[in-house]
Amino acid sequence: MTHLLDTHSFIWSAFSPKRLSKTARTAITDTSNDIIVSAVTFWEISLKCALGKLELTGTTPEELPDIAESMGFEMLPLTVTEASSFHRLPHEAHRDPFDRMLVWQAISLQASLITKDPDLATYANDGLIICW
């Protein structure tokens, strides 16, 4: 199965795996699964670091793609098709543009989204599968 990590799930898997649920840890460590990290996640982390909303200890945002690759994760670019079709995702109650794009990418890929965010469950009717 293919799983897309949301931003906090990626950070936790890299630096604090015990913060992940047992289900999420199992999915991430199961070598038969494809685990993906989106460029959107790296963008969000970089922005939050620049704004002082996130502090990474012992690493920089530029080092995170290498860390992800060393963990066996695949990198997912943001495609022109995903960006231009994003308007089709219903607004629902969730307004965070990073989370919404991750939801859209997961739906587009028919991948589950590994996330703890309960608000994203509102997208289940739109095809989102959540793993937590």
Order of helices and strands: EHHEHHEHHEE
Biggest sheet: strands, sense, closure?
5 strands, parallel
**Rounded average pLDDT:** 94
Helical residue percent band:
40-55%
Task: Describe the model.
The model has no long low-confidence stretch (mean pLDDT 94). Helices cover 42% and strands 14% of the residues. With 132 residues, it is of the alpha/beta class. The protein has one domain: Rossmann fold, CATH 3.40.50.1010. It has a five-stranded parallel beta sheet with strand order 3-2-1-4-5, sandwiched between helices.
Features:
132 residues, alpha/beta, Rossmann fold, 5-stranded parallel sheet, 6 helices, 5 strands, 42% helix
Question: What is the structure about, briefly put?
Answer:
The protein is α/β, with parallel strands linked by helices.
Write the layout of secondary structure elements.
Elements: E1 2-5, H1 7-15, H2 22-29, E2 34-38, H3 39-50, H4 64-70, E3 74-76, H5 80-85, H6 97-109, E4 112-114, E5 129-131
